[in-house]
């Protein structure tokens, strides 16, 4: 009996190891034989997702075949057409060419009969949409209309987009929705570049608002726009923080990488690799805000980008949770960030036009078993950015949160096998995201082209079912 159990245990370990090794299922599904085996066993068959390795190109959609559709009386079509042209995309007249990008201007949908335009555009195309295609839906801001039917009609497009994302996700395609105010259509440029570009990889099934609440900078182009900006990325010795620091450095940003003294070796290694400046500091120490203020005042006189990435988990059910675990999570994941912001904003170190990005989590959207403390803080960040955005809009400052789902990092590697496999597969693309995927969204939110987006929380979760 004992021997049988040991053998079983060994077999389980073997399967665990195989599956956790850089996601064996993706590799298997990539070959004809492997795909057959995966199908036979009834396993999910994730496709290899398209990713970018370099900085933003001057024309981010170069050579991509794009098809635009629209409902009658939409107000964004002309602008979208021009943005696509300027970005180097190749316009298609019909679906015959197998489009890489589809954009639907649904701003004219003001009553249910207008929905037919969505069916007429997408239905004939569904079988020819390419792997890793990008779909961007553009709709009117529901709140902008005084008419309940028009508002409801606009809001319905969200249900359509999220469902389409689920249908196209297995192909590695993304579908996102931008609600745009009629006075903010110029701000669609950055939105199109990102959500129709390769960098969107693990961001799908999202709906965001594009408004004119923050004054637009002179240029909205994102190629080269971050050169010589000064950025602080907290918790950047490893994981998502490190990937973000690397990604920003690729854009020519002077990055300051912060982490706790215990992570010194890894932090210095990150900094050496990307030419960043290391800063050893516990963000939850009482004098951290002042130390940061002194540092930036002396070295740069300013800070342009602040990525509040450092975060911890101390998971236990509430019944088993120790006071210390509760307090630590609240201190590091929320209180410390708010204290740092207060100091840097009031002392004008965070200047006009600055960009602030916070790492929330899908646990903060939906809650999670054993994470009452963690989800509390991550939900608090969602509320924090929504409340801060209008207060800082007058200074041209954008404040947003990103909420990762299952990302392949040290944090998720330490999860029990079954919980990890469930987290990894329960999403529309049937796989975990990479730290780089989160870094791409953060970097985009730091660009001038994202000036229409503030107060939002955007998930990077492959449309994870948690918080769906
Ligand atoms: P990670 O544990 O790999 O890295 C976090 C880094 O923050 C570490 O280097 C750590 O030393 C640092 N840090 C912790 N406490 C600190 C403090 N007091 N002062 C300074 N630095 C501190 O985490 P990750 O997976 O890269 O996640 C990064 C962020 O994204 C976290 O806020 C996390 O909650 C969030 N997130 C991650 C996932 C995921 O799947 N990995 C999912 C949702 C949200």
From TrEMBL:
It is an enzyme of class 1 (oxidoreductase). Residues 229-405 form the Ketoreductase domain. Keywords: Oxidoreductase. Its EC number is 1.1.1.100. GO terms for molecular function: 3-oxoacyl-[acyl-carrier-protein] reductase (NADPH) activity. InterPro entries: KR_dom, NAD(P)-bd_dom_sf, SDR_fam. It comes from the Bacteria. The keyword Oxidoreductase applies. Pfam families: adh_short_C2. Belongs to the short-chain dehydrogenases/reductases (SDR) family. This is 3-oxoacyl-[acyl-carrier protein] reductase.
